[in-house]
Amino acid sequence: MIDEDTIQRIKVAGIFLLQIYKVTTGTLLSLFVPQSCGNKICTVQENYDNSDGYHKTVLYWNMFSMFTFFTYYMIELRREEWAIKYLDIDNDKPDNSLKHIIVKEPTLDKKMDKLNLFYYRSLMVNCGVYGINILLTIKLIKDGYHSSSTLSCFVSFTLLVLMKLYNSVEVAHQSVKNDKMMSAYMSEFISFNVLDADYVKDKKDKEDKENTEKESKEMMDQRLEKEQLIPVKVSLSLEPCVSLQLDEIHCDVDGQTNDPIEAGSDRSVRGVKDDKGDKGDKDDKDDKVPRLLEKSVSFKDH
């Protein structure tokens, strides 16, 4: 059965082989970036055989940049080999626990610090050389620009190398600053195991806001109910306010009309007017009681 150290070495070697291509194309830009040769794109051999003085200068600097890259790679691989041999990965312990453990091994502690510092300094030198390489190549592709493929290839090649440098700088900086040994090749997939703090905070704020609005609405409803339930005092008086007095009722049915009530009403009105003189004395006796209605209805029996 293959042990864990062998698996880690195979993984590092595979990643390194994959990175050789992008480092080669990303440093030898004067060879692999398409350039103009009259009406056609120059081949790699034509770019190499170009006798122009500036083109030759850029090509030599490209080669020097590739050399510094591979030197830096050798230091990086040596560092990875030492870490695989003397250190291990335990997911049950925090990442910064090594500095508390390795102090018990002064030899290993001193070697780790030396490797981290050497790795960091070689990386900084390589970054500086590659930065100059990019600046020199920009003028070269400007003079030998052919088409959009010239620009697209230049951007693609440089981005691949810059991504590698960025990751290496982050690893080297954290290793030197925090006294740890971070791998530049092996990375692990992160498992999300808790809720995001911003999500929890936003959810709590939303719930608090909803509760506040609900309480405010309940208080408003209670207030409206109290305002609507105002007691109203109603007094009822049973004293009579109208006296109805009927002086005369004559039943006289007139066969000539189809509506006895209407006919009787007309006659009663005439009868009241005729009888006012006769009833004067009686009205004087009842002045204290208001008379609101006085009607006389007569019907004639046939």
Report the sheet-strand fraction.
under 5%
Order of helices and strands: HHEEHHHHHHHH
Spatially, the strands of the biggest sheet line up as 1-2
Count of structural domains: 2
Task: Tell how many strands the DSSP assignment holds.
Answer: 2
Low-confidence stretches: 242-302
The dominant shape is flat
Cα separation of the termini = 138 Å
The amount of helix comes to 55-70%
Structural class: mainly alpha
Q: Compute the gyration radius: what is it?
A: 55 Å
Number of helices: 10
**Mean of pLDDT:** 77
Biggest sheet details = 2 strands, antiparallel
Structure, explained:
The protein has 302 residues and is mainly alpha-helical. Helix content is 65%, strand content 1%. A two-stranded antiparallel ribbon has the order 1-2. A hairpin with a 2-residue loop joins strand 1 (36-37) and strand 2. Helix 1 packs across helix 7, helix 4 packs antiparallel against helix 6 (106-143) and helix 6 packs antiparallel against helix 7 (148-178). The longest helix has 38 residues, at 106-143.
Topology of helices and strands:
Elements: H1 4-27, H2 29-32, E1 36-37, E2 40-41, H3 44-49, H4 53-86, H5 98-101, H6 106-143, H7 148-178, H8 197-228, H9 260-275, H10 280-285
Antiparallel strand pairs: 1-2
Helix pairs in contact: 1-4, 1-7, 4-6, 6-7
